[in-house]
Amino acid sequence: MSNSVYQGICELVHKHSSIKLGDNKQTMLTSRLKSRLLQLGIKSWDEYYRYISQGQNNAEIHTLIDLVAINHTQFFRERQHFDRLGSEILDQILAECPGAASKLLAWSAASSTGEEAYSLAITISEHLAKQAGPKPDWLVYASDISSKAIKAATTAIYQEANLNLPQPQFLQRYFKRGRDIYESKCRVKPEILDHVKIERINLFQESYPLPAQLHLIFCRNVLIYFAQDSQSQLVSRLHHMLTPGGFLVIGHCDSLACFKHDFQSLGGGVYRKSS
Ligand SMILES: C[S@@+](CC[C@H](N)C(=O)[O-])C[C@H]1O[C@@H](n2cnc3c(N)ncnc32)[C@H](O)[C@@H]1O
Asked: Is the ipTM of this complex over 0.90?
């Protein structure tokens, strides 16, 4: 792949996702795209670049973004965030955030294949089950730019060996074991699926199809893929999406240290919008 084609593809990826591919990603991109060229019957990188760039080939641009997006995730990844949800954050949200006592709204904003959103849903379900008195309705929005990841999140079938659940009883409580060809796999149970709404969202699209009255946003391990000005712009949009007193949680490889924002830091990647 010539340098100019690589730069052209990087610009397309950036324009449609804000993902910034550095010069060191050329080998990764080449190896991931090779089989795509074979599939399309395209014989050269120049031809592929013409194919994808001419006339805004949106379907192919989505496929390209699927190929460059790093979807690594896990159930209850960075477990301390879920522990803090259960021990302090959810109680604070329910007591202090407008609207949360009637309907608690959370968003897993780069949910990849769904594990983060379902971990959030399980944590909320567990927390509310322990609460005395009337319980709020609740919903977790799950979104990602990758259509492939969204499809997997919607299917909600996972290898049992990869579940990494904090409590063994969660397996039976929240997952249905597969049989025959699905042996060794599990599907999230309907009582959780009913509380998770999944859709493809580019964090940089013009507007989000979500209410700007969210109480909790998980936006973890994704900021790192964007340039600093894009991160700053995104964090201020997330601030706007939260109710007063709402929480933002970022991942261990993300940081808000290099730009100004309006959140109060509570440490460990947890931030709060002032009430
Ligand atoms: C490393 S995964 C993180 C998954 C999960 N949040 C976690 O921490 O386990 C990063 C995800 O961000 C998604 N992503 C990258 N750019 C995006 C964008 N512009 N809008 C929405 N999602 C994006 C990728 O598709 C990928 O699934």
From this structure: yes
